[in-house]
Structures are given as C-alpha cells and as structure tokens.
Design brief:
Layout lengths: L2 E9 L1 H7 L6 E5 L15 E8 L9 E9 L11 H25 L9 H14 L5 E3 L6 E3 L31 E6 L1 H4 L3 E7 L8 E7 L5 E17 L2 E21 L18
Parallel strand pairs: 1-4, 3-11, 5-11
Antiparallel strand pairs: 1-2, 4-9, 5-6, 7-10, 8-9, 10-11
Amino acid sequence: MSQQLGIIVMVDVEAALKANTLKGNTYLFDNMKLQGSEGLGTDKLISAIHGSSYIDGSQANEQVLNWLPYGVGSLPPTLPKSFLADKSKNSDLKALEDIKALADKITSTDTDEFTNVDDVIEELKRISKSTGIKTQVQDKYSDTTRDLGTSGQKIMDVTGELISASKDKIPEINSLNPLITDISGEAVDKKIIYPAAYGSPDMVTDGWYWAASVDTSTPGTYAYTMDIQLYKLIWSDGVWTWIPVHMKCEAYIKISNDQKKNGFTNAGVGYLPIPIA
C-alpha cells in the first residue's frame, strides 16, 4: 500500500511580493524527518523518500506526495472555509438593521435624536464603514476581473475583522492563500514523479490539491519546481483588486531503495520461521 507523504509550503506572501521572489520567503516542511529529510523550515527542502524493493529487485510499492500551500499571516486553515463569506454576509445584514434603526429614530415622534442632517450623515458613514470593502480578482489568463462579491469576499485583517481601506494606503490584511498551479522540473522529466491536480472534499484546499506518485525504483536525488501563484492587492479603476503574481520555488526529493524486510526477522519477505519443539 502506498504511503501518503505531506509537504507543507508556507509562503510569506507580503515579503515575497515586496522582494519579487520566493527565495528566502518560503518555508517548506514534510513529515519525513525520521526518514532523513533535510532543510526543513527553509526553501531548500530535500524530502527523504523511503523506497523498497523485493529480493529480486522489483519495486515493492510506490510513495505518494501531497503538497499543501499556506500563507504566513493568513487566517488559520482550521477555520471553516465559509468564514470569510459568512463574516461579510453578516456585516451586510447588520448594516441593514442599523439603517432600519436609524430610520426609526428619524421618524420617531418622542425623540429629536438624529433630526440634524449632519448627525444622520455621520451615522450613515459609520454604518458604511462597518460593512468593509468588497474586492475583485483579476483572471490569471487575461486582464478581466471577476467580482468576489458573489461569494461575499471582502478585505479582512489577520484577525478576521473587516476593515476599510482608502486608495492611498493598503492596510495590514489577510492575504489570499497562495496556489500551486504546476509541478515540473527534473523529477517530472525523468518520470520519477507523476504529478497532477486532484479534486477533494477537503474545503481547506478549495477542493483541489497537487499530488504525485513516486517511482521509488530509481534511487537518487532529483529536483522539482513548483509554480506558485500569489495575489497582490492594488487599487485599480476605483476598486481594490487582487492581481495574480507568478513565481517559482525549487525543492528536492531523495529516494532510497532498500530491500523489503520482514518486521519480525529483519530479513527478506517470506514465511515466518516456526520453531520445532
């Protein structure tokens, strides 16, 4: 049975966009430290792949790699995937309630509160500010944009609170998670790994993730390249827009290939010895 091996790709999105490189701004981790992985927590990860073969040299089993990208400073992936949309939708509903309450105060016969036009304007500004600001995302294949308002996406800070932003200043924001768009390089060209994007019910990854089967019959160290898409928030044509920025990050796998052993005898796979009384 294939073993599932995980590789976490942590990207400091703000720093990477500022420096225009993933070098020094990416932190890679895997769950193969006990197998001999090197460079954990750096952008030079060498993932140890523990292959095995039968006594005749044939491949005993494959390994499967899974890549999961996250942004440093982004909202925790343990939050429900609908958190951003729910928060934005609830802010709109709260604004409607506040407007109704304001209208009731204006038309009330037993109070003169909010009868001054300036007071009404200030209250409307407060309500408007509390609803946050919706954004657009530019399509990665063209200059067109799509409105994230259909899902209620708005600008939030790293604590998950809605914020308002002027065109003169970008606040400390919760960046969109980075996306892996392709896996290529030496390991793919030499047919050591066979990567593909897979659909999944895992809502943390938007239903898609990259995985690859590893041919462990060819020991050695091989490089592979991840194409990673980040999003930069800019003020464009009167609206805050997420612009895709494409970068590359290289990592390695190191495949060992030892003979498959019997866990009881530490010898080759075969019948267990039965002692004769």
